[in-house]
């Protein structure tokens, strides 16, 4: 039982670490994605919250095991079971979103980017969004630099240094394929983490209920 609690402690720390990386280390990208209308930051925020809950609850299980407290153990088991069901549901939903890579979600993301790009000349928010995506992901336009034909190519389309950016020296990769790949991989990683840790939580709940029966 104590071994399971220790594993859940580590799992909680892992949740917190991954969530923090997405929210802090690459916060400029996640914030830019959110501004396009895609609420991507919800996933790492949820990961961070669940990590904190798992970390705190694991101490409840440890106390219950050491003191052999029926009340603490049953509470610990029920909470873990609820978390398990929630995480499996979230993980299953994440994988369902990925089952058709050419589906409506892909079209929706590209449309959101094109809408933001059209607003670029007269919207500070659109400028901040696209400049962040182009600078951080090293891409230009939605499908490529030619998307900026007829419009001054933003400096964020080029490596830092030049005072002007042209189609010839701009990043040649479009932002949509890179961004979609980033979202696809991130959701896959988060989904796998949720389901894997959910299995450990189920094991913890079973151990807690078994220990309760032996008291």
Automatic annotation (TrEMBL):
GO terms for cellular component: plasma membrane. It holds the Pfam family Tetraspanin. Keywords: Disulfide bond, Membrane, Transmembrane, Transmembrane helix. Its main location: membrane. It is a multi-pass membrane protein. InterPro entries: Tetraspanin/Peripherin, Tetraspanin_animals, Tetraspanin_CS, Tetraspanin_EC2_sf. The chain crosses the membrane at residues 7-24, 44-66, 73-96, 187-212. It comes from the Eukaryota. Signal peptide: none annotated. Disulfide bonds join 139-175, 140-158. It is found in: Membrane. PROSITE patterns: TM4_1. Belongs to the tetraspanin (TM4SF) family. This is Tetraspanin. It comes from Photinus pyralis.
């Amino acid at each position: 039982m104590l071994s399971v609690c220790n594993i859940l402690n580590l799992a909680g720390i892992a949740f917190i670490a991954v969530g923090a990386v997405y929210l802090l280390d690459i916060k400029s990208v996640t914030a830019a994605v959110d501004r396009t209308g895609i609420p991507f930051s919800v996933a790492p925020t949820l990961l961070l919250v669940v990590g904190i809950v798992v970390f705190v609850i694991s101490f409840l299980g440890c106390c219950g095991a050491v003191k052999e407290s029926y009340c603490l153990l049953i509470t610990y088991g029920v909470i873990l079971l609820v978390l398990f069901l929630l995480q499996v549901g979230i993980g299953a939903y994440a994988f369902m979103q990925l089952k058709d890579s050419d589906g409506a979600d892909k079209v929706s993301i590209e449309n959101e980017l094109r809408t933001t790009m059209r607003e670029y000349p007269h919207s500070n928010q659109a400028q901040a969004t696209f400049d962040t995506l182009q600078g951080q992901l090293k891409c230009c336009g939605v499908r490529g630099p030619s998307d900026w034909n007829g419009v001054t190519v933003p400096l964020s389309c080029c490596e830092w240094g030049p005072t002007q950016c042209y189609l010839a020296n701009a990043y040649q990769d479009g932002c949509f394929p890179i961004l979609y790949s980033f979202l696809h991989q991130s959701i896959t990683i988060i989904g796998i983490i949720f389901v894997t840790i959910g299995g450990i939580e189920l094991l913890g709940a079973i151990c807690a209920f078994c220990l309760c029966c032996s008291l």
